[in-house]
Amino acid sequence: MRTSRPESIGRAIDCQSHLFCPEVVAIMEKRERDPIVRVKDGQRVVIMGDWVRKFMPRHTDVDAKLADMDAAGIEITALSINDPGPEWFGADGPAVAQTLNDFIADIVRNHPTRFLGLCVLPLQNEKAAQTELDRCVRQLGMKGILFYTNLAGRFPDEPDFRWLFRRAVELDLPVLLHPPLPITTPQVKGYEMISTLGNMFDDTIALTRLILSGILDELPRLKLVCPHLGGTLPYIIGRLDHQTQVLKRGPKYLTRAPSEYLKQVWLDIVSPLPLAMRFACDMMGSDRLLYASDHPWVDPRLILDNLRSLKLSASDEEKILRGNARQLFDL
Q: So what's the pLDDT on residue 58?
């Protein structure tokens, strides 16, 4: 097991990086209903309806993740499980959540200078989710909440989940959105577009609904993070402003244009397109962007190289690579 931190470590803090929990993978191998794990054409895959994903070679290997962090110059990683989350396991969700959170917490405990943990919650059971959140913060030392952009088809802005955002503010914990099985899967399953378009649409829909719900007025200190440069929302936010402010379509209780609420949110910069990063920098400002890799699906060096190709000022690059995350997670 790798335990030491190399002297040559770089400066980046990675805000989105995942591992599958072997114990829950074993549970999925025995399940007869989605989510399930099976061997298909000699390759182990996670199956959720039309979404079939291959396990990456490094998807359960902590030492391999540390090696990739070292190679990319990543000092600290905010570690979370991949989907599916506890909400897909029905009545077993609370037990699954405990297993997943213990898995992440054990890794952080073994490598306290390299990882911080994000918890997941069984949000189909509010009482169990409240209890698990308190356990994760008070006993496991978790530094944030991974909140899926849909909860087995339900949206995160729904009234049943408002307590979580209020509690996150009380605890000063960031809430990091992440797409699971996209709600648009039936529309994008052709040509294997689920991860390409479906995930980005899930980011966009969830973040737009949260903005339009008024939650950022109710909770102005909420630390909300959206992955993948906010899906498509930054690119179309002008249309949303026009619809709500000029045509008066949408909620009447917003006190500002949606684009102003968007600038209260943090975006991670997971994108293979430097031009998209540049647009996000121009729109959001460097104070609201976070380096992330989406490892092991993405090579961390790709995102780093794209960021550095923008030739931002040293202070702006430092904020995105490290400074903003240090403030967000109170490191």
A: 87
Identity of residue 166: R
* Residues pairing with 44 in the sheet: 39
CA distances from 43 to 53, 161, 192, 194, 206 (A): 10, 37, 17, 19, 32
**How confident is the prediction for the chain on average, in pLDDT?**
95
Q: Give the pair of three-digit tokens for residue 297.
A: 């699906």
What predicted TM-score, i.e. pTM, was given to this entire model?
A: 0.95
Torsion 225-228-234-239 (CA) sign: negative
pLDDT tens-digit readout, 89-113: 999 999 999 999 999 999 999 999 9
What are the CA-CA distances from residue 204 to residues 18, 84, 230, 231, 265 (Å)?
A: 21, 19, 6, 5, 13
Domains of the chain: 12-21+57-328 (3.20.20.140)
Tokens of 261: 């609420």
Q: What is the pLDDT of residue 119?
A: 98
Helix (H, G, I), strand (E, B) or coil at 59: coil
Q: Write the DSSP string, 231-298.
A: TTHHHHHHHHHIIIIIS--S-S--SS-HHHHHTTSEEE---S-HHHHHHHHHHH-GGGEE----BTTS
